[in-house]
Amino acid sequence: MAHDHGHHGHHDEHGDEHRDEHGHTHIDFAEMLPMLEQEAELFTPLYAEAAGWLREWQPEPEMIVDAGSGPGVISCLLADTFPKARVVAVDGAGPLLEAALARAARLGIADRFGTLEAELGDGLGDLEYPADLLWASRSLHHVGDQRAALAGFADRLAPGGIVALLEGGLPSRYLPRDIGIGRPGLQPRLDAVEQEWFTRMRRELPGAAEETEDWAGLLTAVGLRHAATRTFLLDLPAPLSEEGRAFVATSLGHRRTGLAESLEADDLALLDRLLDADDKASVFQRSDVFVLAAMTVYVGVKGSPTVGGFA
Questions:
Q1: What pTM, to 2 d.p., does this model score?
Q2: What string of DSSP letters covers 213-238?
Q3: How far apart are CA 49 and CA 43, in angstroms?
Q4: Is residue 202's pLDDT more than 90?
Q5: Beta-ladder partners of 137
């Protein structure tokens, strides 16, 4: 389970899926390691603002769990935001947890950073202590029974603890509607194809259960008190940095690969031009490339309104 999504939001990049012998769709998150790191690092200002906002409910958590941590970029950011906390990154992909540990070591926080390999649909494994803050960024929707998984999150909270659930938001945008080549409206068309893919992916997950994506309602349904919802914006205007262009190219490249069978020939050709570094119309050279993303965080509190900073 990982931040892909990018979520994997879910402003999610669903480009590394493959099908098994039964035709089921899977995502290999370990293979997505470079992209997951690239995206999370570029989006750090958004995540940092969200983490700072969570202080309103948990000023000094002792235990933070990042459920579906991926390579640990956000896990380490949470450790930096809450310097007295111990952070445990939980993910089902061992290579991503290895990357998280390496990142924590590089940042000098290894003494209060741990990992736990576990699938979110199976609970959070052998957590040593209950969590004061459980962060789940675009990971819940990769679990077949989202309500059951969220109930598992709630069970692992300390009294007054909070779940910060990042789901939904808006599709990210990188280009104007009309970019001067190809048919206008490329990104909305990619979004439409991706939504079909996402619906199929959800349907084929083990233990898949249909659920209305009322995230605040789901928090309430598992016994938490929905305390707040806030959407955070990442606005990187044109002209974009080299790092930003590299991310846009990676994002579009994953969609080009993963959605190719469902895209029309003219859009495939357009993507090829956008991804050709030698083409002046590519995202590497054009002046109008940007990144605009909106991600929504829902906060659920365990306990009465007098717990966790509420009067």
A1: 0.90
A2: --HHHHHHHTT-EEEEEEEEEEEEPS
A3: 10
A4: yes
A5: 166
